[in-house]
Amino acid sequence: MAAIELRNVRKSFGMVDVIKGVDLEVRKGEFMVFVGPSGCGKSTLLRLISGLEDITSGEMLFDGKLVNALAPSKRGIAMVFQSYALYPHMTVYENMAFGLTLEKGKGKEEIQRRVEKAADMLQIRQYLDRLPKQLSGGQRQRVAIGRAITRDPKVFLFDEPLSNLDAALRVATRIEIAKLHEEMNQVTMIYVTHDQVEAMTLADRICVLRDGYVEQVGTPMELYERPDSIFVAGFIGSPK
Ligand code: ADP
Ligand code: MG
């Protein structure tokens, strides 16, 4: 069964159709990458999946259950954005624990255990007492990812998480995210990027979006060897 299934999902803002009938299955444990030109609807699609925006029509299912009207906090999803959006006046520890302290029934020890585990996974344990401004961009983005991990989500949504980092940090953090996906058993990830190398190296499958539609879905190899269109070939870097 698909972790996430979209059936003819549409989204309009006023008169403007942005997502124009998307059918897509994301498998449990899969690393799915969305690529496509600026403005084609990648971020909007993530926001629909997270519940931050309501779909205009169609159906969205998680583990086979309809979630069209389910509140974002009940979806078991964590989202990591391009800008880290950490609370500047809170330490790294407090930033990572904050979401958990809002959940009912989580004791101090449980929270501490989760934060430290996430910090270990991302190698930021030594920074837990610092403020965000005392960290580099890469470290801050790790904190943002760590904060997402502590919520123990079933699904991670990443919206161009590395695009504010310099090249070397991008590679290091990309490897970290790949490792995370391996370590977190059966966690499903959807990752938006416009970086071909990121897409090709991270993805189990790539979904190429174009102007609110799905143009093609396949493994990096399938898209590279058998692109359906010049558009896809252009995005994947294959010679068609
Ligand atoms: P991408 O992430 O692929 O660059 P977006 O999903 O951000 O694209 O945007 C897709 C289109 O939807 C763009 O034309 C954008 O202007 C429009 N759009 C996104 N959010 C809104 C909104 N809240 N109101 C009106 N238009 C929006
Ligand atoms: Mg975007």
Automatic annotation (TrEMBL):
Keywords linked to the UniProt accession: ATP-binding, Nucleotide-binding, Transport
Species for this entry: Devosia riboflavina
Residues of the full protein shown: 1 to 240 of 334
Membrane topology summary: Peripheral membrane protein
Signal peptide: none
Subcellular location(s) of the protein: Cell inner membrane
GO MF term list: ABC-type maltose transporter activity; ATP binding; ATP hydrolysis activity
GO CC annotations, alphabetized: ATP-binding cassette (ABC) transporter complex, substrate-binding subunit-containing; maltose transport complex
Residue ranges annotated for the ABC transporter domain, each copy included: 4-236
Domain of life: Bacteria
The keyword Nucleotide-binding is assigned to this record: yes
The protein's name in its UniProt record: Glycerol-3-phosphate ABC transporter ATPase
Protein family (similarity comment): Belongs to the ABC transporter superfamily.
